[in-house]
Structures are given as structure tokens and as C-alpha cells.
Amino acid sequence: MNLFENVDFPTEQIIGPLIVLIITMVIVASVYKILLGKILPPKVFNFLLGPVCLFGCYLWAYPMHLGFHELFN
């Protein structure tokens, strides 16, 4: 007995943007490491790595109009 046989879940609409999100965050973190990896002390570098990755997430969400206002409407 399959209760969800008529439920259509569009996985292709979810997987693509998530892959782009991961790639965007890796690129932003790599650019951060290349530019500031040797200049900043390790504690400061590690402390700022999280906000830099969040900035990468914002770069991913902004073109899709997924800002905070639209997200919490």
C-alpha cells in the first residue's frame, strides 16, 4: 500500500539550485583563502570564514529574489 503514489515531488527543481549553492560557497571561501589566507592570523581567519560563507549564500540567494523579506513573507 503506497500512500504517496500520486504525489509528484519535483526533485530536479531542488537539486540544481543546491549544487549551485555549494559551488558558490566553495568559490567564495576559496577566494577568501587565496586573498587573505596568508595575511590574517589563523584565529581571525577561522573566525571570519563563517561570515564569508554566509555572504556566499547571500550571493546565491539574491539573484533568485530569496532575500529576507521574501523568505519570511
Characterize the structure shown.
The chain crosses the membrane at residues 14-32, 44-63. Keywords: Membrane, Transmembrane, Transmembrane helix. The chain has helices spanning 12-36, 42-61, 68-71. Helix 1 (12-36) runs antiparallel to helix 2 (42-61). The protein is built from three helices and no strands. With 73 residues, the protein is mostly helical.
Report, as a whole number of angstroms, the end-to-end distance. Answer: 38 Å
Computed structural class: mainly alpha
Q: Tell me the strand percentage band.
A: under 5%
Arithmetic mean of pLDDT: 81
Low-confidence runs (pLDDT<50, min 5 residues)? none
Helicity, in percent?
Answer: 55-70%
Shape: elongated
Q: What is the element string, with H for helices and E for strands? A: HHH
C-alpha-based Rg, rounded: 18 Å
Number of helices: 3
Kindly state the number of beta strands: 0
Sketch the major β-sheet.
Answer: none
Topology:
Elements: H1 12-36, H2 42-61, H3 68-71
In short:
By secondary structure, the chain is mainly α. It has helices at residues 12-36, 42-61, 68-71.
Q: What tags apply to this protein structure?
A:
single chain; 73 residues; mainly alpha; 67% helix
